Amino acid sequence: MKTDILIAGSGCSGLYCALQLPRDKKITVITKSDLTSNDSFLAQGGMCMLKEQSDYDSFFEDTMKAGHYENDKKSVEIMIKTSPEVVRDLVSYGAQFERNEDGSLAYTKEGAHSTNRIIFHEDVTGKEITSTLLREVQKLSNVELLEYTTLVDILEKDNHCYGAVIRRPDGSLDTVTATYTVLASGGVGGLYRHSTNFRHLTGDALAIAGKHNIELQNPDYVQIHPTTFYTRHPEDRSFLISESVRGEGARLYDKNMNRFVNELLPRDLLSQKIHEQMAKDDTDFVWEDLRTIPAETLRHHFPNIVEHCREMGYDVFKECIPVVPAQHYFMGGVKVDYQSRSSMENLYVVGEAACNGVHGKNRLASNSLLESLVFARRAAQDMAEQDLKNALPQNASKIADYLASHVDFTPYQDIQTLAETYHHLATQAITLGQNPEGRKEFLYV
Ligand SMILES: Cc1cc2nc3c(=O)[nH]c(=O)nc-3n(C[C@H](O)[C@H](O)[C@H](O)COP(=O)(O)OP(=O)(O)OC[C@H]3O[C@@H](n4cnc5c(N)ncnc54)[C@H](O)[C@@H]3O)c2cc1C
Q1: CA of 186 to the centre of ligand 1 (A)
Q2: Checking DSSP bridges between strand 47-48 and strand 118-119, what pairing results, if any?
Q3: Once rounded to an integer, what is the mean pLDDT over residues 247-254?
Q4: Closest by CA position to 129, among listed 15, 32, 218
Q5: Residue 444: pLDDT band by 50, 70, 90 thresholds?
Q6: What is the set of domains in the chain, with CATH numbers?
Q7: What pLDDT, in 10s, does the model give residues 49-72?
Q8: Which residues are catalytic?
Q9: Residue identifier of the C-alpha nearest atom 9 of ligand 1
Q10: Could you point out which of 38, 104, 272, 409 has its C-alpha 20 to 30 Å from the C-alpha of 131?
């Protein structure tokens, strides 16, 4: 197979990248699962934006503070300054966000934000944004979307990426040559026992980068979300009780129903405090009280959470719910520059798979959708510019064809062995660092 741009991943970063690329390019988007099974669809709380110029310094400071000041300042600046353009794009595609009576955007707040600056659509903001992007992409005749098609490796020579090896839905293996390849393959939650992520998100970009000596950045920076619904079945995907619930006033209690912590601490500190309290009380969870939020706000803003708790046997209007921290987000990833270029020529990485340093050591709530979109857009713009400059080596297409026709498929044939090898590569990258949070509870190491 031949294409101009191959994108692995149909979450918000992969789709927005496809939308921002020139229409005269053939774009192929592949996804390991179906088109809507990705973390972008799960995002509940919302997406940050620069609501007015006067909030710039405070937004910048909140992001830096949550990130322990290890953030790349220029990435943070780019993200914040580009946010109004991205929101304009989303609105122009038809995405609906909560509005005030005068029609202006309404903003909510989450932990570690010093003001309301998060746009939202009930508690299903990610679904609203990503289904809108998907609808737009599906209108494009230059974009082909292939479900249940997995990128199992890249085609590489002399640190230049020429496309990928893929597994098709029937299990057959094939090659795709591409001028540019974009890894938009999401996070690492599938490596963990307790995670809010889809289980098929197993850090494939990290593993493939490790295999090909592509530079990584902060691979040990893994975020644990403080509040997910406690279940006795650890193999279930952990259901998130959004931070904005705490932003709206929810309280956390120990086993004696006493409040033990400031609920709006940054995620890493709050998770730590909850783990400490659970150890002290010898419990598997703490209690979260949503009754402190006006019933109408609960019903209107958090219908999905209310319904999930009801299905699990809890009436949030009358009783507390059990919550526990779980793996949630990957701040580290494949190292990229401000245009989302990796250390390998013609290989871009966007979204949660990438690390441009924007989040530092810990992500501020609701900065992830924004970061994914801003830097996916920059990747698309850069590819378009490179193409105009005719920056490709003259014999690139010949090398690509040669590589594609000489692939030894043997190492990719046994899917289980390949998954274990990649699992090992990804977990090795995460555990090599110094951050103990990230090491907790891998499925198997
Ligand atoms: C429960 C939950 C709530 C969240 N809430 C918020 C929020 O309120 N605000 C916020 O900003 N962020 C939130 N986040 C984080 C945010 O949703 C993600 O960081 C973001 O959506 C990641 O987008 P992505 O495009 O990088 O990856 P994803 O949306 O996860 O997409 C990854 C894609 O890659 C595909 N893929 C993976 N491996 C391969 C492979 N080898 N070959 C081909 N395809 C592959 C997958 O099938 C999928 O299509 C939340 C996350 C979760 C899990």
Answers
A1: 5
A2: antiparallel
A3: 95
A4: 15
A5: very low
A6: 2-221+331-439 (3.50.50.60), 226-327 (3.90.700.10)
A7: 999 999 999 999 999 999 999 999
A8: 267
A9: 366
A10: 104
